[in-house]
Amino acid sequence: MKQGWRWYGDADAITLREIRQAGVTDVVAALYERKPGEVWPIAEIKARQKKVKDAGMVWSVVESVPVHEDIKKRTGNYKKYIANYKQTLRNLAKCGIKTVCYNFMPVLDWTRSNLEYALPDGSTCLEYNEYELAGFDMFYLKRPGAEKEYDAAMRAKAARLWKKLPDKEKKRVADAVLCGLPGTVDDLTPEEFLAALKTYEGIDDKKLRRNMYDFLNEISPVLEETGVNMCIHPDDPPHPIFGLPRILSNAKDIAQMYKECPSKHVGLTLCTGSLGGDPKNNAVEIMKKFGRRVYFCHFRNLEYTDDKVFHESQCHLVGNTDMPRLFEEFLKEEKRRGEKIVVRPDHGRFLEIDKGRKCYCGYSYGGRLIGLAELRGLEIGLKYAKKGL
Prior knowledge:
This protein has about 400 residues and is of the alpha/beta class.
């Protein structure tokens, strides 16, 4: 594997020097200063590229070039934003960057209910508790019609939990949902969030899928022209949330996208954490079936305390994803294509050594440092045990 690391530019609490000392060869970055829909100028791309190169690494993966909401809804200035997207892809290709991660999730990027879930050793990580989110949706956000989207058991359990939850904890859930997570929108107020949700009225699962396929097929000629690989990030969580459809959540969704968008440059970011948000997903089988169009990987693991509640594992190799078996399939795909694929340790625990840093939630130094070391050790161990991979 190529050892990757997501870097948020000069505002990042982690320096490029520290990243290189972690053993990283490939930086995953973006022009975070640019808003969705804007063209990324070549001069700005090259400036960021030079900064990474001067630190001894290469900027090889963009995460991400955000898809403007008008494109997702196919309303407003979507034609202009698609044209701008095409130009950004051409500009990236001219600079030699040909792997682009993106997602098609409406309004919100990945969602959690707790950004500081305490583990037994005193470190913290991210947690998803669907009962808390349902309580937030029905009783804090008070989204019209929210109650109809949960079954009786979920409504009852969420109501009991929310009633007992102290105000401080209710605010913790609200902040986790509404805060500007890395790669997503700025902080939202409940009123702004409700207004954003309202703009998707009338856009159901079928419509959002068609909008995504149309977008990908419209940019496919540019992908063929430039050799850029678009690798979609799975929905997180991988099911509808706050009345919004989720359309890239499982093997069936991936197969449908590949069928509707035949270009080999329309591919997948294999994120075990996002796919793992549905215990029915099998990342090993997904890699086996769709590996030829996997162009980028996020590896991490989850532990479930309930079928609706999970948190990130203390170890990237242990949890609901069988990471050793997955890595075997990953190495087979690398061997088949004769080239290495960038893998980044996705999310990391917040450790004692991270205190005092203003890290993005999930993007601490210590936790990802350990995660990368674990993945590196697994790769070396498998290659030693199964020579020829």
